[in-house]
């Protein structure tokens, strides 16, 4: 039925005879002759059983991206864990704890380690499990496979074998790399979408060998057999070499017969194919690279701190060993009660150096509490929970596609808060890759009422600015309140619902103008020109029409979305294009002579037609600059008006094309045609050049008709998002595979470029063959351009001047070379926006690396297609746009979001929070461990450096794992300095991250110093209070356990109160954890004191009988807690009072509800808080206002000069 | 109240000690209400040394001869092939000076019961475990224990076994349960058995009363006062600066974007 009709229609189609030439040259017709390495693969078609034994056994179609499997998990995961130096240290300590050297019992060393490592491994296992589930989803997809006797069965993908014949239906993915045998079309072509492979959205045509065309129904595969000999698996997507032996004939194969796994069958009902490469042999899998494991800068810095602590550890261990040696040698023989030497030789005055060495090991273990064992695992837990918040953020949930944001790796959360440069892909990232026909200019008259996104946004911004200006003019204006509200609403409308409000009813058509609609154009003065205009729209293209059976409306499969939008527009204007052959439109018949895909180099496309009256026309559309060059003298009637409109359109962020025509004489045409046919049929390398020359001859002396303006539909909220990101001080680079014009248009659309910005275009000059070393000449030329531009930027005096750098891929190849890249980077940094066009995926990665390594700042790459994978992996943070079909980018990314605009929230809110949380958390961790670890060291000095700890082993075990970890985890998960709305309103707050205000060495050492202070206070206060006097009314003296317990209580209180002071955002959870930790300590003492285990360490009923009844114990706890927190309290009070940071002030404003009382101030601050951005529409509006003011000022001063000279 | 012993004996190499009885006179400066606690204080005695602390077996104290693993007690674990109860260096080096107090010529009653924690007596040192084979080795350490009295009643031992935190420490010896008046003269007769000379440690005898906060503790008070004073000081400084140079809360001029660029 439906399928049959499409097929029938296509059968009449002549499209494919032009579009994809058969292998033309005769020498290619010969089979490839190859043998030897690299070309060993033999595939027995339709005989998959041949491939079950060794020489021909190829890998299965099962794919797995997991890191571990059941067997390798344990060893591999454990190995991974102990690659962390801290964990390795604790492992060694745990092993040594089994010997008498250890100061602690074995269980107190092993239990926390097992807990920590176990938790990390559980997390690994969970993540791997998720990957496994994802793999299985793919592996279990069903494919239609030939079984026997022409019967096809459903089989999961993973069961597919080499040699299988499969049938793939429309809109399904190919399960493996296939050789195309036949398709639903008679001539064996099919259309393939390769978005998953290379990110290109246009359809590609594949063509079966003629000899296999007959295999087009299930029955015919009964006796089908053949042998394919071809190249070995390799990652090259665009090459394939092989022979197909079929019915005792050998046919050569080339890439146009190969259907690659993960690409999709489109516009074709079904195809049959033979599996050549399965699973990991397939090209797409060969292409997949292991995503590099990334670590955030904070973690790298944290490693450094850990090394510092290790040094400290070794240092104090050495000190105590030396002390021990001295004591052992000189004092121990006199201490008769010790009965030295002992058997093990740990305390042998005769051999103090040996004993000293043992003691060094003991000390290294003893002071191990300086190294926070639970730091890594706590950070991991925190990051997983932070990622959970990101995943569940409703503001980053795309309602249309139902995709939430997804933190795919959780270890980069805090990096999000420190991003300096964003490198963005264009298509699919900034734009939705959907074009709307919005405006046109015909015969010098502009049509189309609807404003583009950019215009709308800018207009609203402008209105607001103007209001502010007038308000500032009249200080303390009292009419603010009603004003403000409406404005705030306005603003939210822009940012959130913008897209929904004005979604065009027809996809690709946003035109609104009754003068042209419903045939009204006929009444316009220049109806004949309009007719031509519409004809050009509807004829001059390479699209394929497709009739929607249900609605009866044609949709178009065009090579580019602009073309699609033209056709939709033409359809709406009444020029419906419905068939490819005799391009029949409502009124007239035409006679297409030839057409060809638009070529970037030519930047134009022409069609020659003969109209109903026999008049021959050449219709041409192309980039305005090119078309204008080719206008005849009398064809420039509308040039001035059109140019003006084109500029307006460009400013409105629209993509423009100019349309022109030319009348041809019969003779001239036939003469030209002859030449053209000759060129077309010529053989050899200069064929293209000849065609080009011939076409060029014809495309002269054109007459301008008008121009079109298509809105490259930006994704919702992209300009606003870019504006906010720019205000947050982020630099944005656009790297696109598109043409320069398109890229510049989009630059305008999303306000990366604006009128008045100085554009620096760096291009490659055409090399003349005369120059001896063309490459050198080109390089010199480019270097020259770069130096000049840099000079220009340096000499610029105007603080508002902004520069934009636009560079194309070809030039980039030179500039990315080692000797030039730094000059290039310097120039790029000086520019407000950078746009690289026509860049290859590899260059995207290289540019990313250049920025990353050249500036040393943190880069974020965002993209949606497979061509962005390199960039995403190279950048410090890779963000993939999910929700579209291509998953490659998402799979390679660290974070996936559904829309570009969510990036704002991801960075400005989550990034900002996560950065602060992690930074504070790490600082606090070091603080608490230093505070605790050093008390152990001090005690050594009083215990003859013997390695005795004043604390019970169990206390220490619990310290890191239970008693102090939960509050800090709650800090890491829930802390927020200001709420999310304020983050978004004050993008400058984000700058705290890139400036690294919260994790600089000053702060880190400050916390360490705080830890040192706390340890001193806790230790000495307790020791001096308890050491000799009775601490109870009953005259009892505190023993070591009682002193240790009191001291430990002091530490627990001090560090937990400290974290309470550190936090600025409390929910019941934080309170619960902080005060719960303290309560748990007492609870633990209570329970532990009742256990018989406690008998061994004198801790039996330590709380109930010994400490709790002693008022001095509670007094000391209070004293210690207060004394420990005094300096920090003074410090934060000082900072808040005299040196407040931005978030302090905002917290106060919020706390005193000043933002509600004084809305004017609040709004003014919001405005001022913007980073001095040179891009974004705010900057654009600012520039415009400056411009207007400048003019006004001039006028004013002139007027003044005329009247009375005033100062 | 402290009283230094003067050097009375010399030691022959190592452990053999010449016991000497000596007397000392204490002048009570003011009224001391009962109970008056008697402590002995040792200086430079490392009860907190790791070798010393570990050298005990709490299971043996509870289970007596039923508990066989005495590895932690070495070298005071076995004597003549028999286990030592209580084993280990701590017990072996039990303090063995004794004191008797005279007011005038009347010997005062010193209550030496109830000087250890109740839980120790009830749960840690068993009533059924008697000192066995104690201080029978070649090296004689500190005190001998009466083998007929179970460990739970050997309160001196129990007190001693609670190792001290610092090398200077006091241990409770007993209580005088009558008031001492001002200008009372107390004569102390002591048996100086315990060897502190080898490590130049000193011994002290302390008579002390106790309040609800425990013993006489100047430091606690001073610490409290100094922390309080520093708080007041900091508060004062902040107040002063605030009065002189107040910063209103939420003052927007402090926002970084409102700072006037210094460089111009």
UniProtKB/TrEMBL annotation, chain A:
This is Phospholipid-transporting ATPase. It is found in: Membrane. GO terms for cellular component: plasma membrane. Its cofactor is Mg(2+). NCBIfam families: ATPase-Plipid, ATPase_P-type. It catalyses: ATP + H2O + phospholipidSide 1 = ADP + phosphate + phospholipidSide 2. Belongs to the cation transport ATPase (P-type) (TC 3.A.3) family. Type IV subfamily. GO terms for biological process: phospholipid translocation. The active site is at 425 (4-aspartylphosphate intermediate). It is a multi-pass membrane protein. One of its GO terms (molecular function) is magnesium ion binding. InterPro entries: ATPase_P-typ_cyto_dom_N, ATPase_P-typ_P_site, ATPase_P-typ_TM_dom_sf, ATPase_P-typ_transduc_dom_A_sf, HAD-like_sf, HAD_sf, P-type_ATPase_IV, P-type_ATPase_N. SUPFAM superfamilies: Calcium ATPase, transduction domain A, Calcium ATPase, transmembrane domain M, HAD-like, Metal cation-transporting ATPase, ATP-binding domain N. Residues 43-110 form the P-type ATPase N-terminal domain. Its main location: membrane. CDD domains: P-type_ATPase_APLT_Dnf-like (cd02073). It comes from Sesamum angolense. Pfam families: Cation_ATPase, PhoLip_ATPase_C, PhoLip_ATPase_N.
Automatic annotation (TrEMBL), chain B:
It is found in: Membrane. The keyword Lyase does not apply. InterPro entries: CDC50/LEM3_fam. The keyword tRNA processing does not apply. GO terms for cellular component: endoplasmic reticulum; Golgi apparatus; plasma membrane. Keywords: Membrane, Transmembrane, Transmembrane helix. The chain crosses the membrane at residues 12-29, 219-241. It comes from the Eukaryota. Belongs to the CDC50/LEM3 family. This is ALA-interacting subunit.
